[in-house]
Design brief:
- The protein is of the alpha/beta class.
- It has helices at residues 12-24, 29-47, 62-76, 94-101, 136-148, 186-189, 193-196, 209-215, 224-227, 257-268, 283-287, 301-307, 326-335, 344-348, 354-364, 374-380, 382-385, 392-403, 438-451, 456-474, 480-485, and strands at residues 53-58, 81-85, 107-109, 119-124, 152-155, 177-181, 199-203, 219-221, 245-249, 273-278, 294-297, 313-318, 339-342, 367-370, 406-409, 415-417, 423-425, 500-502.
- β16 and β17 (423-425) form a beta hairpin.
- α2 packs across α3, α10 (257-268) packs across α19 (438-451) and α19 packs across α20.
- The longest helix has 19 residues, at 29-47.
- It binds ligand NPW, adenosine-5'-diphosphate and potassium ion.
- Ligand NPW binds at residues 15, 19, 32-33, 36, 59-66, 126-135, 155-156, 181, 205.
Amino acid sequence: MGEALRDLLVTPAEMAAIDEDAVHSGIESFSLMRSAGMAVSAAALRLFPSASRFVVLCGPGNNGGDGYVAAAALAESGASLAVFALGDVGKLKGDAARARAAYAGEIQAIGTYEPQAGDVVIDALFGAGLARDLPDEVQEAIRRVEDSRRPVIAVDLPSGIDGRSGEIRGASFTAAHTVTFMAAKPGHLLLPGRTRCGTLEVFDIGIPDRVVRARAGDLRINTPAVWQQHASGLDPATHKYKRGHLAVFSGPQISTGAARLSAMAGLNAGAGLVTLVSPPDAIAANAAHLTAVMLKEMGKTGDLAAWLKDRRLGAFVLGPGFGVGKKARAFALMLCGRALVLDADAVTSFKERRTDLFNTIAMEGGQVVMTPHEGEFARLFPEIAADTALSKIEKAQAAAKLSHAVILYKGPDTVVAAPSGRTVVNANAPPWLATAGSGDVLTGIIGAHLAQGMPAFEAAAAAVWRHGEAGTRAGQGATAETLVANIPPFDYSATRPMGRVAL
Ligand SMILES: NC(=O)C1=CN([C@@H]2O[C@H](COP(=O)(O)OP(=O)(O)OC[C@H]3O[C@@H](n4cnc5c(N)ncnc54)[C@H](OP(=O)(O)O)[C@@H]3O)[C@@H](O)[C@H]2O)[C@@H](O)CC1
Ligand SMILES: Nc1ncnc2c1ncn2[C@@H]1O[C@H](COP(=O)(O)OP(=O)(O)O)[C@@H](O)[C@H]1O
Ligand SMILES: [K+]
């Protein structure tokens, strides 16, 4: 994809392999630990210059090793310092033992640490190697620190956060700042991990780009770099059909608002024209509310078949407020060969009949995006949702493979996964996007992108990002209507720096 290292997401297993490759390529492993520990001590001094005391909590592995390097550097800077270790420091191995040996000060047992006013805690207990729930002794130490509200700087990850899934293994610190190395990990972006990291600093400890890229999979942070090259610039000689014709299907008379929100969002997001397709009983309600969006009456599936002969219809949105049942299934199956967003009721309608949908998508080969929130995901993919061994990323990937569609798994940490395995995790969405109708707006934006010819994965990822930006622009009191009005223009020539992500 040619994007910057800062856009990659690397799993702990991949990071361990990267570390090994770096050493095989001739880099001294201790030099990596030294860089990591020095970055931590620099962050501590930069962020908390008036700390009365730095307290470094060191674990039994290399995360602890980074802690000893940081402790030695802090001692050298003249800062007041205390070091507490988990377990027998005599049993440390390799680089961690070497780092510990280079720290000349006293080391106390972690169980004896009582937080004091003015302490700044450096959490170097566990990082990427966390393999099971934290021992009780560590959970108790975490509770004491959390109760004291002393600020915490986490080394690599707040201890207790699973770097692969973002899950909490028994307990975890809540850091003010996390320093990680070379690339962010899924646990930094997925919930609940993300809420425990504070600001995230991705520090380059000197592993060459090519070594990192060679092991990194298809996982990225959702930034414009992922989809920018597919975003259509406006050709001065364009006309409205070239900008794409989006069709949005309305529900019956008493539930028309959701589809109108999608339609308005589609228009504001750049579709050249948008048609709201309405059942006869809802025509009057829809007509009373629409101006730029066009209206078309349609009752039966036969009418849809005839209309679909118009190849200028670029993309379709089916689901918001549409109603669950046979009609939704029939319409969806007729549209699987086109560019299509299936949301809300259209997803739920296939709860007992998903094989029909998945087979038709595979056979017709359209550009299909499904946008389930957690509840809808569990309806369509119950066995995947119930598998507690899988992270949200892995769940979205499994669902995409099974359904042959791009899966946009919504939430504070929205994941977009393609059947090929390509996946992004989103990080720009403010919490006030959780407002009624917000998902309908997102669906409309995806529809606009599809209508303009973007491939399904890029259309979905770009829409999640623009939706997040719209939320930020609309501000804390955002409603679905103000989100529509705040969809930013599709011009991302200048991408935002992501080296330090404010989470
Ligand atoms: N990647 C890189 O390029 C670089 C990485 N660096 C640093 O290395 C860190 C990763 O180091 P790591 O692999 O030694 O893992 P780490 O997190 O210290 O813990 C593992 C130790 O804890 C143990 N253990 C595990 N879970 C446990 C539990 N619940 N309760 C109790 N024990 C448990 C486990 O032993 P086990 O009992 O499982 O055999 C093992 O002894 C990484 O986060 C970064 O800070 C830097 O130095 C620079 C280069
Ligand atoms: N806490 C949150 N932070 C950021 N975005 C969120 C949060 N909660 C929900 N969202 C986003 O808000 C939208 C809500 O959509 P959805 O659940 O379909 O609700 P609705 O059907 O009411 O529109 C989704 O895009 C989702 O990702
Ligand atoms: K840590």
